[in-house]
Amino acid sequence: MARYRSQNAGLHSLYDDILHEELPPKIAADLETRRGSVPPWAAMAAAIALFVVGAAGGWMVRGETETTQQLASAPPIDTQELMVRASMAHVVSHEDELRSASNGGTAAVGDYLADRMGKPVKVPSLTSFGYRLVGSRVLPDTNGPAAQFVFSDESGKKVSLYVRGEEADGVNITYALADDLLMFYWNDSDRSYAMVTRVDDEQGREALLTAAKAVYGQFRQ
Fold this sequence. Notes:
By secondary structure, the protein is α+β, with helices and mostly antiparallel strands.
């Protein structure tokens, strides 16, 4: 809550001057006309829709690798929902909010997640890529609880993996980019996965793709 309050204070200091600027008369008159014709519930629904679109609108899908089995009877993966939740979870994750992997190792992390998600969840490893598992946490999602794993290298660079339940067509490992975040995501028919990190360079992107392929293989075993 302290972090949210600090963030809100920062936003107010940056944008309150703009927020309180007087509207030009023509725009103000047009706005009053529209407000009279739109029910309050519709305005609220539109605001929520704009927030969701704005949060995911910057993501650009860039390509695919690997292959997964397609299920003809399943719906397509909800890429927008996955991108929004995985990227927001990555940005707001802090080490003191994670279930530490230091006590009990990966087995304890797996038990912790299985107990809260109601089904086993494999704990991936990125040690061969120079990343240690910092910890994990369970987050609310539209399809039930989701898991997030957070990894860090010696320099403090963070990589996170978001795992949500989703009955959908299996989808290839796909690359997406938004602002200073890059993501590789995929679905294996009953769960969707998104690996997220900060953008650095092409070499970093290829390294993350290799790590995503490794994690994909670990979950398929």
